[in-house]
Structure formats: C-alpha cells, structure tokens
Design a protein that fits this description.
Blueprint lengths: L17 E3 L2 E3 L5 E5 L6 H13 L4 E3 L17 H13 L3 E6 L2 H7 L5 E4 L7 H7 L6 E4 L6 H13 L5 E5 L16 H9 L4 E3 L1 H5 L5 H10 L4 E5 L17 H17 L15 H31 L9 H17 L4 H34 L6
Parallel strand pairs: 3-4, 3-10, 4-5, 5-6, 6-7, 7-8, 8-9, 9-10
Antiparallel strand pairs: 1-2
This protein binds prephenic acid.
The site of prephenic acid has 11 residues, from helix 10, helix 11 and helix 12.
Length: 383
C-alpha cells in the first residue's frame, strides 16, 4: 500500500511492540483494558479499577473529554475526571488511558496518563495526529466510523511521520447497513491491518456492538483473529451510567469474561493472565510465557544495537572500545542480577559478547562510511 513508509510491514523490521511502563502491547501477552465510557466520580473509578485489576487487566480506561454525537449529551468532567482516573489507576497499580479531542485536551492529559487515545471521530483530524506525533506517549488510534483500512493506516502514518513511533491501532466497528448492532465489528480488519502494518492492533467490541450481550463472544473472536488486546467498557452500575450503559459490562461479567480469555489466548499461542486461568501452569502455557520473554529480549537487544550504532557514529575509529564504560555497565548489571537473584555469572558471560558485537558493529559501520566517502570523492573509473 502506497505511502506506508513507516507504518508498513517490512521483512527486516517485523512486527513491533509498544512498551509502556512495564506493559508490552503487541507481544505474546494479550493486554486487557477496561473501564467506563465516561469518568463520573471518584468512587465509580475506584470500583472500576478494582474490577480491572481483579480481571487481570493492565490498563484502566475512562473518558474525560467526550466527543458526543449530540451537543446536549454529557461532554465529560475534564480535569476533575482526569484526577479521578489517574488516582484510581494508581491505587490498583494499573496504567491509564483517556481520549483527547484537540490540542488543549492533549496538553492537559499528556503528562498525567500513560496512553492517549484518539477516537474514531478524530481519526482524520490531521492537525491532532501531527500533535500526537510530537509527544512521547503511546497513542491508541481508533479506526474512524467509515474509514477504510488504508485511511486508518495512513492516519497512523501521520503520527509516525511526526516522530512518535508508539502507535496502537484499534478496530472499533464500522458503519454498515446493518442496524442490529451499533456498528459492525470488522474482525477481518485485524488480519488485514497486521498483514499491511507492523503496528499492534487491539479491538474495542463495546463500541462495535453497542450491546453487552455480544461483548463476550466478540472479545474471544477478536483474540482468535490475532488482536493484541481488548478495550472493553465496564461500569460498576451500567443502569446509571451517563453514557454507553447498554454496552457496558457489569463488573462480574467483566471478570467472568477475563477468566474465559486465557483458553482462547492459549489456542492462538498467546497468553492472558487472568486470576482464574493462569493458576494452571501447564507445560504449554509456561513455554508460551518463555517465548514471550525471549521475543522481548531479542527486541531489546536489537534496540540496544541501534543505539550502539549511533554512539559509534560519534567516535573515532581508534577509540571505539571503551573499557572503563564496559566495566561500569558490568558492575551495575552484576549488582542488579544479584538483587534479582539471577546468577551474576550469567551477566559476566553474556555481556562481553554483547560489547564485542557492538564494537565490531561500530567498526564495520565506520569502515563502510569511510569507503562510501572515498568512493564519492574518487569514483572508480573517475580520474
Ligand atoms: O558507550 C559506548 O561508548 C559504546 O560504544 C557502547 C558500548 C556498549 O555496548 O554499551 C560498546 C562498546 C564500548 O566498548 C562500550 C560500550
């Protein structure tokens, strides 16, 4: 697909993950996010956070700026709601996500929440996308109500092109001729987006269905088609919710669903750590966990190597190896390993290889640059 210069999937880059304060989105683990549509009160958020935690969720959601279809509908509690959201997440050691609708709301929330959401209605608000590209926080980008997959990915490209690599795509249902559900959950979009892009993809079954009775099955289907996470609306008392009550799960339904997700996750070689299911440490589930950890080790090593390359660009060829820096790193990591009850010998064995490959990489890179320079100054067959 044309113009997906940064969002497009290439064989060298492979799929990417978004790491945020200890949570990896797009890795082996399925990430559950839940909470009410709108933040209404401190107690509502505390109860929601408690349920998300109990279900094994990692991220608390709650809208404080609500782009509503009608100007007379509740528009959100703004700053006051933000405090309730952040406080409730903190109480349960969860991360939090909220939607922004314009530059002022982005500025208000950016330092307070862990993830920022750009909603379906703003998916093609290009100025907002560019602003989101300038910040250092992951962005959940929902698919627009009537957006094609190409338009959705190009919207992500705006954020990436402006400098923010941390984009998570979210399929939330599209408008079709079918009136039985609020929108039509386009589950095939998960596979298509993953075929075209390296970005993680999550699913919001709540806005798609608009009805709580379908949320459980749609969530499981989403995992089966490869979603990396779920964003589900849940309210301590949906019958009094100021918005989206009919599609919000009751707390016990949310926990019940979470208990059932582990089996589905495992069937597609993923893991979901809900209180109920992970208790069973089967060989398969333990190996799946190891696979997830191995994947992030290699991803982190690749990221380290990219930085080592940049460091090399700043050094002279005869000063690439820096023994005192290596000793300093080694000592720090030996202390850390001891603290984490990992044999320090492991660090002592592995790190010399990491340094050595880094040094060789830097030297090769410098020599290649010198060669190119020489060729451009004195082209073969030139003078
Ligand atoms: O810090 C540097 O100078 C680097 O080049 C990075 C690095 C490393 O891998 O951490 C690599 C080689 C040096 O010998 C020391 C450290």
């Amino acid at each position: 697909m044309k113009d997906l210069k940064l969002a497009g999937l290439t064989s060298e880059k492979g799929t990417s993950t978004v790491e945020v304060n200890g949570v990896t989105i797009g890795g082996k683990e399925i990430i559950l996010m839940g909470g009410p549509c709108a933040v209404e009160s401190s107690i509502q958020m505390s109860q929601s956070a408690e349920t998300v935690k109990k279900a094994g969720g990692k991220i608390l959601r709650g809208g404080v700026f609500k782009p509503r279809t009608s100007p007379y509908s509740f528009q959100g509690l703004g700053q006051e709601g933000l405090n309730y959201l952040v406080q409730a997440a903190k109480e349960q050691d969860l991360l939090c996500v909220t939607e922004v609708i314009d530059a002022p709301s982005l500025e208000l929330v950016v330092e307070k929440v862990d993830i920022i959401q750009i909603g379906a209605r703003n998916m093609q608000n290009f100025e907002l996308l560019k602003l989101a590209g300038k910040i250092n926080k992951p962005i959940i980008l929902k698919r627009g109500l009537s957006a094609t997959i190409e338009e959705w990915l190009l919207a992500a490209e705006y954020i990436l092109a402006a400098g923010n690599p941390q984009v998570i795509l979210c399929e939330r249902g599209i408008r079709t001729f079918e009136p039985s559900t609020r929108n039509t959950l386009d589950l095939s979009a998960v596979g298509v987006a993953k075929e075209l892009s390296h970005l993680p993809v999550i699913v919001d079954p709540s806005h798609a269905a608009g009805r709580r009775d379908l949320i459980s099955s749609l969530s499981k289907a989403a995992l089966a088609v490869g979603a990396d996470g779920l964003l589900i609306e849940m309210h301590p008392n949906p019958s009094v919710a100021v918005s989206d009550g009919p599609q919000s799960l009751h707390p016990e339904e949310f926990v019940q669903l979470a208990q059932e997700l582990g089996v589905v996750a495992e069937s597609v070689h993923r893991v979901f750590a809900c209180g109920g299911y992970v208790g069973e440490d089967t060989l398969e589930s333990l190996r799946t966990k190891i696979d997830g950890i191995d994947q992030s080790i290699i991803e982190q090593l690749a990221a380290r190597m990219r930085i080592v390359k940049k460091v090399g660009d700043q050094k002279r060829l005869d000063r690439v190896k820096d023994i005192s820096r290596e000793k300093e790193i080694m000592q720090r990591l030996i202390n850390l390993a001891t603290e984490l009850q990992l044999p320090p010998e492991l660090v002592k064995k592995i790190y010399p290889y990491i340094f050595e490959f880094g040094v060789q990489f830097q030297i090769k890179n410098k020599l290649a640059i010198d060669n190119e320079l020489e060729l451009s100054i004195c082209p073969i067959g030139g003078r």
